[in-house]
Design brief:
By secondary structure, this protein is an alpha+beta fold. Helix content is about 25%, strand content about 25%.
Length: about 120
């Protein structure tokens, strides 16, 4: 009689364990690690800079302190004329080297000491 009672207990325990494993297999899976990330592309021409849509994300890296500022493009497109680094306070202005019809489409941000800042835009360019 003991063997029958013991085998009933084991079969009940095994049934509960099997049911728990089945239910656990339906639980949502958690995943660690980075999710979808934004990809930024360098902006090298005035035409590219002007084509960034209002609300699009841009990143500007400071050539003085190496800080990076991310922001959304405002309706005035202020990055088309200049940029002030929020970390070190350096003011950069847009220059178009070359002149005379050559190289006038190049987008360059430069401060008074010739440090360059670099503009990048998210999305496809």
């Amino acid at each position: 009689m003991k063997n029958i009672t013991l085998s009933k207990k084991f079969s009940k325990a095994f049934g509960v364990l099997a049911a728990a494993m089945v239910f656990a297999s339906f639980a949502p899976q958690a995943s660690a690690g980075p999710g979808p990330q934004q990809v930024f592309h360098p902006v090298t021409s005035m035409k590219m800079a002007a084509s960034i849509p209002v609300g699009g994300m841009i990143a500007i890296s400071c050539g003085k302190c190496n800080g990076v500022a991310m922001m959304a493009v405002d309706k005035d497109r202020s990055y088309m004329t200049g940029f002030k680094c929020p970390s070190c306070g350096r003011k950069f202005h847009v220059v178009s080297p070359g002149g005379g019809g050559k190289g006038t489409d190049i987008y360059v941000l430069e401060d008074a000491d010739k440090h360059a800042a670099h503009l990048s835009a998210s999305g496809k360019m």
